[in-house]
Amino acid sequence: MEKVLLISRFMTRTLFLLSLWFMWVPLGVVCSTGNASASSISSSSSSSLKPNVINIGALFTLNSVIGRAAKPALQAAIDDVNSDPNILNGIELKLLLHDTNCSGFAGTMEALQLMESDIVVAIGPQSSGIAHVISHVVNELHVPLLSFGATDPTLSSLQYPYFLRTTHSDYFQMYAIADLVDYYGWREVIAIFVDDDYGRSGISVLGDALAKKRSKISYKAAFSPGDPKSKIIDLLVEVNLMESRVYVVHVNPDTGLNIFSVAKALNMMGGGYVWIATDWLPSYLDSMEAVDPDTMNILQGVVALRHYTPDTNLKKSFMSRWNNLKYRESAGRAGFNSYALYAYDSVWLAARALDDFLNEGGNLSFCSDPSLHDTNGSMLHLASLRLFNGGQQLLQTLLRMNFTGLSGQIQFNPDKHLVQPAYDVLNVGGTGTRRIGYWSNYSHLSIVPPDSLYTKPPNISTGSQHLYSVIWPGETTATPRGWVFPNNGQPLRIAVPNRVGYKEFASKEKSPLGVRGYCIDVFEAAIRLLPYAVPRTYMLFGDGKRNPSYNEIVNQVAQNKYDAAVGDITIVTNRTKIVDFTQPYMESGLVVVALVKEAKSNPWAFLKPFTREMWFVTAAFFLFVGAVVWILEHRINHEFRGPPSQQLITIFWFSFSTMFFSHRENTVTTLGRLVLIVWLFVVLIINSSYTASLTSILTVQQLTSRIQGIDSLISSTEPIGIQDGSFALNYLVDELNIAESRIVKLKNPEAYIRALNLGPKRGGVAAIVDELPYIELFLSSTNCLYRTVGQEFTKSGWGFAFQRDSPLAVDLSTAILQLSENGDLQKIHNKWLTRNECSMQINEVDQNKLSLSSFWGLFLICGIACVLALTIFCYRVFTQYRRFSPEDQEEELEEIEPSRSSRRSIRSTSFKDIIDFVDRKETEIKEKLKRKTSNDKKQQTNHSSNGQASSPA
Questions:
Q1: How far apart are CA 155 and CA 172, in angstroms?
Q2: Please, where are the H alpha helices in 494-607?
Q3: In this structure, what are the phi and psi dihedrals at residue 901, rounded to the nearest 5 degrees?
């Protein structure tokens, strides 16, 4: 009969669970409130006295790595709270412990039984899957749930308002792993995880975190918690055939060691492998009372994360008590791990919150929910489940708690996460683990404890990330590459364009490789520089009758039909969106090549050495310097005097005769000679430059073409030739808006020659647009009949194409740079791509003209010399003019023009007077000044003698 009742009760509670599963929105309640009884809070009486006992529940798997550490910690915390007179004012805190037995169904049943005891706070569970289900129950009954072991990031969602995590979410742990992957330069990882809420949610966050670091999870290897060892073997055999060698293991601590034991048996714990374990592994190892050599042997080189807890005196005191805890033996084989600290702090969090709750007048009372009642003889006992009236108020009290516990600071941020999440980064080696650094959400990877960094500004730059050296699997300190070629017996499939023309770059050959050419030699040389072997096979792409489409080659690499493409493949924008390219090994760009003819002789060729501006400025300076020299020499040198017409001719003659250094006039003044010396130096430079430029123009062959560059092609309507399969077609049509009907596809250099010789009027083309490397080869074999016109109008390069995120592309880029630095790349270029001495580009006469920009410095020096000489000259003239008095000027004018002297004022001085003064010979002026000086002395002598005669005797 008892078995029947037990089965009946089990079935009814199962049905109740299913009903709760679909009932997410809490229904309105109608209840009568009251205070708890003096003996317990399970009563609903209206007594105003505070209860003597407060029930809190604990729900987790007792016989587990986490449970065996959590149970003694919880019971020790209960004892410590009850023995502390400052907490709860003498009210006893009672722990009701239920075992979930590693079962989601059993855990749900135990949770319902626990809720019948009218608990005000529930602690646990450790399982994220069970936490999801129980969170719906506590939401309905308004009982806060404090979980010290459920790390599923999705439990922090708004869907579970009464769920509080007293440990750190896996959200932060997965970002720590992403920082580790980025720190060591890996780009792909394989995630091995248990296929439940805990495993799936954690790996989902890991994928997001890696994406922010431009990395990814290449494969997700999931298994069920109860899978036998054979399933694990099949799973690891499958991932061992893949490219990535970086494995992230996110499993339960009770069964996770099976992964490593199988990996050890499959030789997957040797050199080249990387194993990163989440916090489950340190929890397991810390729980071991004695070191198991066999266990440590299979974990050598593993990197793992462990919750970081500061080494405070409070923590040290608790750990010293751990071996003597009276509850430890009842848990069986128990060992300390970080979850014991979080469990201990959960009890204190609940106790402190209840203390504040009661001091604030909180009501520990329960009421019935009318939506939960038994009908039609049901035996679900729904009426025994009652709502906690103060649940919402207690939840808010919990969220604002702030104190220091064994695990560190207990405080929640707005997202209900504990503040200051941090982890130890451990490396398994020998008979234990060693700490190689820390990770915190504040400063990421560091060799300094996070506590000492919180007082400093955060620094998460790449250069600030540091870890100590790691001993990797295989007992090596060299960082593993993190990937290998897939171990499935298939070599790298490399597509090579089967070209019709320009076979110097890539072509078919009867050799072990099957291909030859410049591009193949560069690729092979780069492969030889890699520190590992690359099995490969070359596969020709194209029928050999026409050049293949390079866009199609790239598309097939992106679609995994080929692993890579090697050849003259131009790196353009639309291709980089679907594949990864290596560092360019050849510079390229589009140019225009056209048929050229020798330019006819020009009768005005002697004017071409200088630009128009240069001619004008030179002529102006000839006249300017001649005028300056005339001004400086006119008053002294008789060769610069005479009638105005003769003086004007002298200026012109003297100016231009200096061009040939044949001037017959002598300069006698110091200033004139200074100006002439500077000017003759300028003339010497100009003459030499003119002679050299004119010689070049008349002797060097000048070629012309009616096509001047890409602009003239765009404006015309004539046909344009391109190489078949080239990206030039898309560029001309899409970017330059040239009509596709004008484009003529040509297969090889012979077709280029025919099309250019025929010309646009006879079915050929006006010009050919192609990439520079092809044109260099083409021009070297055509005896200089064709030249490039205009400038290179695009800039690009050739590279090797690989599938997206292929690590081989990065390694080959480094190898190509090494080839360039050591000169091997140039040697390969010289081997395949030799050119003759024919100049590629048309010599433009206009480009060789000498402009004013090349000589303005000389003209500036000459101008300064002339201005300086004129300034000194003017100063000397006006000094003489001031000494030459107006009366002397008047006397001179009377001698010359006596009839007009009466009309001139003694004090009048005009500009013409100054000009007349300047026009006179300097010897005359000096003679007049000398005569004036002697007359002044005579007058002074007469005045002095007259004064003596008239004085009285």
A1: 14
A2: 518-528, 550-558, 573-576
A3: -70, -30
CA distance 203 to 175: 11
Q: Which H/E stretch holds residue 8?
A: helix 2-21
Which pairing describes strands 386-388 and 216-223: parallel, antiparallel, or unpaired?
unpaired
Q: Is the pLDDT of residue 880 over 90?
A: no
Tokens of 83: 């023995």
**Rounded to 5 degrees, what are φ and ψ at 919?**
-75, -20
Strand partners, 722: 745, 769
Summarised one tens digit per residue, pLDDT across range 217-272 is 999 999 998 889 999 999 999 999 888 999 999 999 888 899 999 999 999 999 99
- A 10 A CB-CB count for 197 gives 20
Max distance between CA atoms of the chain, in angstroms, equals: 179
Nearest CA among 148, 65, 79 for reference residue 335: 65
DSSP reduced 3-state for 267: coil
Kindly indicate the confidence band of residue 903, based on its pLDDT and cuts at 50, 70 and 90: very low
Classify residue 26 by its DSSP letter.
Answer: P
What lies within 8 Å, CB to CB, of 909 at 6+ separation is 886, 889
CA distance 342 to 340: 6
Reported as half-sphere exposure (CB side, CA atoms, 13 A), residue 205 has a value of: 20
Whether 183 has a pLDDT exceeding 70, the answer reads yes
Q: What does 744-794 look like in DSSP terms, one character per residue?
A: EEE-SHHHHHHHHHH-GGGTS-SEEEEEHHHHHHHHHTTTTSEEEES----
The CA-atom distances, in angstroms, between 560 and each of 4, 490, 556, 564, 727 are 62, 13, 6, 9, 22
297 three-class SS: helix
Query: Measured between alpha carbons, how far is 346 from 690 in angstroms, rounded to an integer?
Result: 95
Give the length of the chain.
953
Taking CA atoms, 68 is separated from 99, 408, 611, 660, in Å, by: 11, 22, 95, 111
Q: How confident is the model at residue 468 (pLDDT cuts 50, 70, 90)?
A: very high
User: Do the Cβ atoms of 155 and 128 come closer than 8 Å?
Assistant: yes
Average pLDDT of the residues of the chain = 82
In three state form, how does the secondary structure of 364-410 look?
CCEEECCCCCCCCCCCCCHHHCEEECCHHHHHHHHHCCEEEECCEEE
- Residue labelled with tokens 């209860």: 51
Reading the block at residue 787, the tokens are 């030249």
Q: Is residue 345 very low, low, confident or very high in pLDDT (cuts 50, 70, 90)?
A: very high
How many contiguous H segments (helices) and E segments (strands) does the chain have? 30, 33
Of 698 and 564, more confident: 564
* The model's pTM: 0.68
Range 854-857 contact pairs with CB under 8 angstroms and sequence separation of 24 or more: 854/689, 855/614, 855/685, 855/686, 855/689
Q: What is the pLDDT of residues 144-171, one digit of tens each?
A: 999 999 999 999 888 999 999 999 999 9
Six-digit token pair at 888?
A: 């002397």
pLDDT of residue 363: 84
pLDDT digits (tens, 9 = 90+) for 469-512: 999 999 999 999 998 877 665 788 999 999 988 999 999 988 88
CA nearest neighbour of 240 among 258, 266, 216, 218: 266
Fill in the amino acid letter for 229. Answer: K
Euclidean distance between CA atoms 125 and 706, whole angstroms:
86
At residue 510, the pLDDT reads 86
Q: Determine phi and psi for 483, rounding to 5 degrees.
A: -160, 155
One-letter amino acid for residue 368 of the chain: S
What percent of the chain is helix, strand and coil (3-state, nearest 5)?
45, 15, 40
DSSP class of 472: B
H-type helices in 793-897, by residue range?
A: 807-822, 824-832, 845-848, 856-883, 886-896
